[in-house]
């Protein structure tokens, strides 16, 4: 396993940031790590990169224990923290050369990562002159400099414009073909675009860990949300006679969002209900169940 987390717990005083967190990530996976602010994402990433020590449990990166083999972990991990720490007065190549000296690796690697991250057009500029997108590329180039097996990226696309978002996503996806990538983000479309798997954490606990496609398919099967518009107003109490109705919400005078806990297609049932009460259905469709909806449901408590 590239990453193995066993019963990790972390406390800040009396506040518990992580509680018995367990998961494994295989080599070559791109895994999205999701959760609301304060859920414990950054704490866990700092533990995996040896910046923090867990209070309970143990974790391994590339087979190395993060507590007892910190140097080996650091050599095998590329880390891009949420706030990308760059020396803005240094030129791009100068900054990468400085980090190459830290890792004690050949300067030849600098040109390789510049090309890999698309920095070539800006490589002769000072970092302070670069756009946010290119600064993120410098951070990624630094994380890749020592050719690590595992990349841990904390909010890698924060503050980027739509074009920069696409560029960095494509870059991460391309890098992920040969490495394990563990990234946190608040952007659901980002996970849907590049990740194979999603782990959702809430209040320090893992609430979901699944293949992305399987997760969406399973959640769609559990619950059915329908939008129905009738040709006239009806009272909410009338809807209660519809079988298997779990919840209802009025969108406007004639339109309702209806929730059913069943795999049965409830649209024929709604047509029968409308006919019985001499109503016409002006529109009737299934509400899309995407990752953003699933995330809200898993983290609303």
UniProtKB/TrEMBL annotation:
Pfam families: ABC_tran. The keyword Transport applies. CDD domains: ABC_DR_subfamily_A. PROSITE patterns: ABC_TRANSPORTER_2 (PS50893). Residues 3-228 form the ABC transporter domain. Coiled coil: none annotated. Keywords: ATP-binding, Nodulation, Nucleotide-binding, Transport. GO terms for molecular function: ATP binding. The keyword Transport applies. InterPro entries: AAA+_ATPase (IPR003593), ABC_transporter-like_ATP-bd (IPR003439), ABC_transporter_ATP-binding (IPR050763), Motility-assoc_ABC_GldA (IPR019864), P-loop_NTPase (IPR027417). Belongs to the ABC transporter superfamily. This is Gliding motility-associated ABC transporter ATP-binding subunit GldA. It comes from Flavobacterium agricola.
